Amino acid sequence: MANDKIEKAKIEEIELTEEENKGQLRAYEDDILKGLLAAANYKAEEDNIHPIEIARNGVVLFKFRIRPLTEEEYQQCKEKYTKYVRNKQLGIKFPEYTDTVRYRSALIYQATVDEDRAKIWDNKNAWKALNVLNGIDLIDRTLLAGEKDAVLELIDKISGYSVTAEETAKNS
């Protein structure tokens, strides 16, 4: 009896004509479109906003929210804080040095939701009080290295950079 159930559970491969293939695609087209739109809107969805608390000695000093970053946003931050040199013989620019401290702060700044970025990192009174010139300087001045590391780890996770080999295999 158990073997009968196993036989029924087997997947049968069938050959479809080109017209039948097109019909199958049309049948699932709405599902595909919905999936693509959901993936494109992932960054903007409220479910993907994560609160961050900066606390020391058990006291919460301030809170802000972060969102996932796109690959372009990661790239823009990296390019902004990478020094390039031109190889005169080849006529090509090569990255010489990336200011990782500034790059990491830029990622946090970029991932902070606009409303919180305006209130916290772009707070001109805080800039004046701490003698900094911009929000990235303020991040450098206020967050400890380990705090920045924890925030960046969460940004990477929600931006899809923490997918394990097991999760990838499941999705294949």
What does this structure look like?
By secondary structure, this protein is of the alpha+beta class. The protein contains nine helices and four strands; from the N terminus they run ααββαββαααααα. It has helices at 2-9, 18-40, 71-80, 100-111, 114-121, 124-130, 135-142, 145-158, 165-171; strands at 50-56, 59-66, 82-87, 92-98. The strands form two sheets. It has a two-stranded antiparallel ribbon. Strands 3-4 form a two-stranded antiparallel sheet. The longest helix has 23 residues, at 18-40. The model has no long low-confidence stretch (mean pLDDT 83).
Quick summary of this structure?
This protein is α+β, with helices and mostly antiparallel strands.
Write the layout of secondary structure elements.
Layout lengths: L1 H8 L8 H23 L9 E7 L2 E8 L4 H10 L1 E6 L4 E7 L1 H12 L2 H8 L2 H7 L4 H8 L2 H14 L6 H7 L1
Antiparallel strand pairs: 1-2, 3-4
Instruction: Extract low-pLDDT stretches.
Output: none
Q: What is the CA–CA distance across the termini?
A: 32 Å
> How many strand elements?
4
- Helix/strand order, N-terminal first: HHEEHEEHHHHHH
What is the SS-derived class?
alpha+beta
Largest sheet: 2 strands, antiparallel
Helix content: 55-70%
Number of helices: 9
Strand content: 15-25%
Which whole number gives the mean pLDDT?
83
> What integer value in Å does the Rg equal?
24 Å
Described by the principal axes of the CA atoms, the overall outline is extended
Strand numbers in spatial order across the main sheet: 1-2
Keywords:
two-stranded antiparallel ribbon, 9 helices, 172 residues, alpha+beta, 16% strand, extended, single chain
